[in-house]
Design a protein that fits this description.
It contains two helices and ten strands, in the order αββαββββββββ. By secondary structure, the protein is α+β, with helices and mostly antiparallel strands.
């Protein structure tokens, strides 16, 4: 965050790279295949803006033959895979989410558009922050769980009391997830936490991100 509000730049995700045997993003994720896809969804949500196409899990194969080195694609079609289609749906909906919520883009280059809520939970590997654009719509709370463990009833501070709607969940079944969530919305507890005037108890999906919008 040191340079976030003093320099304007883009940090691209390297994908479909064959140099140094890096492979596609999916192949670089840890864990079993479910965790690989969950980690990929988590990465896309945490980075926020996805401009590039979705990579297939199949990577190009370099073959040295008598006619010289050539690139031979592996057989396979990612469009036939439910899990790959889930990633495609996620990126589609994420782009829509960003466009429809000014808090995600109106104040990108100002510290007035971002607040840390919880960046000290090393044991739980959870990050929570607020995105906002005063005068352009409600505040958004983003909570990310970087472990494969479900965090039930996770206590997180919020800047406003009232009802918070879950408007995005990377663990939704349509994206290939396990559908751990918060039933559509959560009511604040009236209890201060994380230095905020109120707080929520929410369920955080494994290797997942939830986005909550303040409804008032």
């Amino acid at each position: 965050m040191i340079y976030a509000f003093t320099e304007n730049f883009i940090l691209p995700l390297s994908h479909d790279e064959v140099v140094h045997s890096k492979g596609a993003l999916l192949s670089q994720m840890p864990g079993d295949m479910w965790q690989k896809f969950a980690n990929l969804r988590l990465l896309f949500l945490y980075c926020g803006r996805i401009q590039a196409r979705i990579c297939c899990s199949w990577e190009a194969n370099w073959d040295s033959g008598t006619n010289g080195t050539k690139m031979v694609p592996f057989n396979g079609n990612c469009s036939t895979s439910e899990t790959h289609r889930g990633i495609q749906h996620l990126v589609r909906d994420l782009n829509k989410l960003i466009v429809e919520n000014p808090a995600f883009h109106k104040t990108d280059f100002s510290d007035k558009g971002f607040e840390w809520v919880d960046c000290m939970s090393a044991d739980e590997s959870v990050l929570a922050y607020v995105r906002k654009a005063d005068g352009f719509g409600p505040k958004l709370m983003v909570c990310a769980n970087f472990t494969p463990v479900v965090r039930e009833g996770y206590h997180v501070g919020v800047p406003c009391k009232g009802t918070w709607a879950e408007i995005f969940n990377s663990d939704a079944s349509i994206y290939g997830g396990s559908n751990v969530g918060n039933g559509g919305q959560v009511q604040s507890l009236g209890v201060p936490h994380h230095g905020r005037e109120d707080s929520l108890k929410i369920n955080l999906p494994p290797l997942g991100v939830v986005v909550l919008k303040h409804l008032g």
